[in-house]
Each structure stands twice: as structure tokens, then as C-alpha cells.
Amino acid sequence: SYLVGYFDRDYGRSALYARKNVVIDATDLPNGITVAWRGADDARVLAVYGNLTMDNVTITGGRSFTEDISTGIEEDQPWTLARGAGVAVWGRARLTDCTLHDNHCLGDFDSSRDRGAFGGGLYANLLPIEDCVVGGNTVVGAGAAGGGVFSVGGAETSGSTSTVERCSITGNHISGLFVYGAGIYSDGGGIGNRKTLEVINSTVARNVVAPAAMLPPFVRGLGYWRGGGLYMSNGYMHVKGCTIVENEVFGYPRTDSLDRPNLAGGIAATVGNAHAVEDLVLLFSIVAGNTVHELAFDGSVANSFNHDVFTGSLLYFKSRGHNCFGVLDFSQILVPVGEERWETFCRRHYPKQGDLDGLAVDEVVDLDGGITYSSTVLS
Q: What is the pLDDT of residue 59?
């Protein structure tokens, strides 16, 4: 075999497309502007090969989906790739005072999770997003991730940190067979180029992970459903001053040959034979009231339990103090290996000053009078 070269991938139709840096600034308009796709053919709203800056913009009505483009030539790409139904950015996405809602990714069910559907609202290499609402977006596919936001952490974009600050990531829904991160998914870069996702002063609530309705019975026992609120697959994640509550995970329960569960709740990290993630750091945050629902073979709920933080194969879980947790699951965190020059034998830096756990959500969040509902973002 020999390498014939590299080609641009086909990510399907976009209503608006630019292969350069783009700025859309509506800061001087009291109500901003809305960019909505209402065409007869499905298309994502905006694709940018470059950096995108948007201020005071609403993006809605996007549809990104897999489409058969096979030519019969083995080397050709057989399907378009569903990425970023609202906005897809192969660069840095800097969003301020924006709303992304009612955007939908639809992937295929004919291949592996590696050809999944990613980013219902936003898909981007790096993310400085501030004061944004991302809600009511969906992702469906055999592999599905990032119902609200998918952060790639791509090597081609300079910088090492993505930030989600003062945002509301709520009411997003993802479903499929391999399903991760209904609110936010962080890919975190790769070996030698790991990135950090910081979620700061934000609310991640009432997002849902679930099996797809069209899954045939014989594959239901093969799936993974994890991370109703946040999911990290690589790199580093820092959660500061956040409220991560009432996210839900539905799935068909099983454990693998090493007794690792396939379901995990509010915040979840990668677990696997060849996977390890670096640090998960939390401070001044509320993570409670997130639940896992185990499904019976007929799809009915057989068992439900609280499950707020699942460390997966983390190298280090680090509390910086003053967190309020429901249920913490450290069962899969990596153990010390006894080698010289390792930072420490302690992987779990918890509890710290002011930390509390075993809390019910109504002990730390005002569920009666403290929730604001949108009249326009249906989630």
C-alpha cells in the first residue's frame, strides 16, 4: 500500500460557508440578529474554515446529517460527516452573548462510533464562549457526542485552553449506541498536544443522554452512555463556580471484562484499556441531582440512582475546596504504579476545605423559585 495524499473531508451542506476568518458583530443592536435556516433542504447554519467571532447573535434551525456520497472507489469518502448543526468552526470560536438553539445533528448507524455525529449547537477546535445560551439541540447517531457543545482541542489551532464562561448549557439531548456528553464534550487534543477545557460560572442542567429509539435489540448490550452534563475524553478539565444538576443518563447496563460500568452520570471521564485522562479539577461548584436510569430490555426504567461524578481512568482528581457533591464514584481512577519520579502516589485529592458530599439537589439549589425558563428556547 502507499499514501496517495490528504484530501479535505466532506462535512455536508452549510447554509453559510467561509474559508477565512469571520466576524459577525451585533453588539450595537438591542435585540441582536438571528441567523435561522428555513430552507427545504437540511443544512447547518454556518461553517467556518478559520476563526469565528460572533457577538449578540442567535443561531437556530440548523441540520447537519450524514449523506451517502459513495462513488464505488474504495479510497473515496463514503458519507458526509455530521458536525456542528448550528455552527461548525475548524479554528477558534469566540462567541459572546449568543444563543444556539433548535439545531440537530443526525449521524449514521452503519459504521463505528468513530464516524459519529458531534456538536448539536457548536463544534469547534477551541472555545472562548461567554454569556451564551446553548439549549434545545440534539445529536443522534451510532456515535453521538456534545449535544450542546463539542470542543475538539485540535492541534491545528494555537492555544491550549478552551473556556465556557457564564453560560447556560441546558436541555440538550443526545442518543445513539456510543453516547457521551449531552451538555459539553471535551476531546482535549491528543498525545503530546493535550488541551484544557475550563467551565467557569456556568450552569449545565437538564441535559439527557439516551439510547436511540431505532437501536435493534441485539446491539443494546454493547453500548456506552455517559456524561449527562460534561464528558472529557482526553486532556484536562477545570470546573470553577459551576452548577451541574439534574442531568440524566439512560442506558442498558452492563460491565465489561474488567468490571467497568458502561453508564455514568453528571460529569464523566474516559475509561478504557488504552485510555487515560489527565486532571479533573473542581472548586466552588455544585454537582448534585444527576441520575442514571438503567433500562430493562423492553426499554422501561428498571432502576435509577444518583451518580454525579465518575472519574473514569483519571490520573488525578483534584478538589480545590468548597464544592457540594451528591455521589462521587472513584471506582475506576488509576492506581499508583510504584515507579520512581511519579508526582505522587495519591490520585484522589479529596476532600479539601469546605467540601461536602452526599447532598441532595434540593439542599443546594432552589428548585422552587430559583429557575428561570426561556420563552423562546424550547428545550
A: 98
287-320 residues labelled b (16+ CB within 10 A) or e (exposed): bbbbbbbbbeeeeeeeeeebbbbbbbbbbbbbbb
Q: What angle do CA 191, 120, 105 make, to 5 degrees?
A: 105
Low-confidence ranges of the chain (pLDDT < 50): none
pTM over 0.85: yes
What pLDDT is stored for residue 56 in this prediction?
Answer: 98
pLDDT 10s digits, 198-207:
999 999 999 9
pLDDT tens digits for range 269-303: 998 776 668 899 999 999 999 999 999 988 899 99
Over the chain, what HEC string results? CCCCCCCCCCCCCEEEEECCCEEEECCCCCCCEEEECCCCCCCEEEEECCCEEEECEEEECCEEECCECCCCCCCCCCECCCECCCEEEEEEEEEECCEEECCEEECCCCCCHHHCEECCCEEEEECEEECCEEECCEEEEEEEECCCEEECCCCCCCCCEEEEECCEEECCEEEEEEEECCCEEECCEECCEECEEEEECCEEECCEEEECCCCCHHHHHHCEEECCCEEECCCEEEEECCEEECCEEEECCCECCCCCECEECCEEECCECCECEEEEEEECCEEECCEEEEECCCCCEEEEEECCEECCCEEEEEECCCCEECCEECCCCCCCCCCCCCCCCCCEECCCCCCECCCCHHHCCCCCCCCCCCCCCCC
